[in-house]
């Protein structure tokens, strides 16, 4: 049996999820990027008054369906509320988005995927995703498009919830606070921030994985 045949379920799921993420980006991405700059997102949140932080976190959750520039929104939360409070809102928003993506795919998307691809095809994908899926969850929270697609795959392929949650926290919490700190000091997004937002979650997941194995 060829590699393509063994993993056709995983390939089909990846293709569908990426298409679902890319199409909204093609349609609305340019307009949303122009609206939700760090300053634009801060002004948008200010319209919600005391609930502006929750509105900003809600934007990060909306990244499930819309191509929200999430790191710019995180920076706007830091610009508006400072590193600590803005970081809490940013981390909460990205973690809730990941949990929703995982839960919807696991409990609603899984039955549909079984009908389309078959249980055997999904089983082969589960084995492949189990080997490195958590690394992808932890290291992708700062990237465009991919984070929620990866969270959906984690749910679809039934990654254990405890493993997923730890990987998500390892990725989402430092990423939220890092970009909030960048916004709080009034900087744009330097290249080192992107590097740190991948390296730190990966290191944290390495430590968390050792704890899980014990």
Keywords:
single chain; 214 residues; mainly alpha; 9 helices; 0% strand; disordered N terminus
Shape: globular
Count of DSSP helices?
9
Q: How helical, in percent, are the residues?
A: over 70%
What's the total number of strands? 0
Mean pLDDT over all positions: 79
Secondary-structure class: mainly alpha
* Distance linking N and C termini: 37 Å
Largest sheet: none
Report the radius of gyration as a whole number of Å: 18 Å
Put the structure in a nutshell.
84% of the residues lie in helices and 0% in strands.
Structural write-up:
With 214 residues, the chain is mainly alpha-helical. It has one domain. The chain is 84% helix and 0% strand. Helix 3 crosses helix 4 (52-62). It is globular, with a radius of gyration of 18 Å. The model is unreliable at 1-5 (pLDDT under 50).
Mind sketching the topology for me?
Blueprint lengths: L2 H4 L1 H28 L2 H9 L5 H11 L7 H48 L1 H21 L6 H11 L4 H24 L6 H23 L1
Helix pairs in contact: 2-6, 2-7, 3-4, 3-5, 4-5, 5-6, 5-7, 5-8, 6-7, 6-8, 6-9, 8-9
């Amino acid at each position: 049996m060829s590699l393509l045949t063994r993993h056709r379920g995983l390939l089909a799921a990846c293709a569908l999820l990426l298409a679902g993420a890319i199409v909204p980006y093609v349609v609305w991405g340019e307009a949303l990027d122009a609206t939700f700059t760090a300053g634009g997102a801060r002004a948008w949140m200010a319209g919600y008054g005391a609930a502006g932080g929750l509105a900003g976190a809600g934007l990060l959750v909306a990244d499930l369906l819309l191509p929200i520039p999430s790191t710019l929104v995180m920076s706007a939360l830091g610009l508006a509320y400072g590193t600590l409070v803005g970081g809490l809102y940013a981390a909460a928003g990205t973690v809730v988005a990941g949990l929703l993506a995982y839960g919807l795919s696991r409990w609603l998307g899984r039955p549909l995927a079984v009908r389309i691809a078959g249980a055997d095809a999904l089983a082969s994908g589960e084995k492949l995703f189990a080997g490195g899926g958590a690394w992808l969850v932890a290291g992708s929270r700062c990237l465009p498009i991919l984070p929620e697609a990866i969270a959906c795959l984690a749910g679809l392929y039934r990654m254990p919830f405890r493993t997923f949650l730890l990987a998500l926290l390892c990725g989402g919490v430092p990423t939220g606070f890092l970009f909030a700190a960048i916004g709080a000091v009034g900087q744009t997004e330097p290249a080192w921030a992107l590097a740190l937002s991948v390296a730190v979650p990966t290191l944290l997941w390495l430590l968390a994985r050792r704890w899980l194995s014990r």
